[in-house]
Specification:
Oligomer: single chain
Strand content: 15-25%
Order of helices and strands: HHEEHEEEEHEEHHEEHEH
Radius of gyration: 18 Å
CATH class: Alpha Beta
Shape: globular
Strand order of the largest sheet: 3-4-5-7-8-11
Largest sheet: 6 strands, mixed
Helix content: 40-55%
Structural class: alpha+beta
CATH architecture: 3-Layer(aba) Sandwich
Number of helices: 8
Number of domains: 1
């Protein structure tokens, strides 16, 4: 059964809205997650919520499951009961996309030994002041590449002795995935807009309420 995610990329009005709105919304996420000019780790969760909100906007709240157990580290939402993984990268390249976050080298090895693709991926490539993209990588495409190149070439483990941040899809594998004929993409021009945001205003207003 083909995933309903493809409908996002076939909806011309929505594609135009994504091109126009996504840079603005992700800029808001950065501003809300910043302190003293530094963007905090929580920006990833805010970006994820923005993309889940897009799914709810397109498909309706009843068809998007957001209460995903912590035991499913790759799954960020379910669309019509099918699991979806949301991933973001920053910059021109396609490296650094995490499959799971772990600081334990042994756990990372075990994960690679047991891993097999299990959900569709929505990948957002953020590239400020340049061109990036919004990609849909179907599960079947991931399985096909994984079977073809093997887990050693598909999965990159953290370097021993470094501060490991997680297990990644190799740059070469990710490039193959996004270029696959079955994958879909929207080109996005990542331009910043002027936003005056006070991250405390909303909370102050809530304190003011009776």
């Amino acid at each position: 059964m083909s995933s309903r995610l493809i409908e996002i990329f076939e909806d011309e009005k929505l594609v135009e809205k994504i091109k126009r709105r996504l840079p603005y919304l992700f800029q808001l996420a950065e501003l809300e997650s910043s302190r003293a000019g530094k963007i905090g780790m929580e920006v990833g969760s805010v970006r994820e919520r923005i993309i889940v909100a897009l799914l709810i906007y397109k498909f309706g709240e009843a068809n998007v499951e957001t209460e995903i157990p912590i035991t499913e580290p790759e799954v960020d939402a379910k669309l019509f009961e099918a699991p979806v993984s949301i991933k973001t990268i920053t910059g021109k390249g396609f490296s650094g996309v995490k499959i799971i976050w772990t600081v334990d080298a042994q756990k990372a090895k075990e994960f690679r030994g047991n891993y097999y693709p299990k959900c569709d991926i929505l990948l957002i490539q953020i590239n400020w002041n340049d061109i990036g993209g919004f990609y849909y990588i179907p599960l079947e495409v991931q399985k096909g590449l994984f079977d073809k190149i093997g887990r050693q070439n598909y999965i990159k483990l953290p370097k021993p002795g470094t501060n490991p941040r997680g297990v990644e899809i190799t740059k070469e594998a990710l490039l193959s995935l996004v270029k696959d004929i079955e994958s879909k993409s929207i080109r996005i021009n990542w331009q910043r807009t002027r936003i005056d945001l006070n991250p405390y205003k909303r909370w102050v207003d809530l304190w003011r309420e009776d």
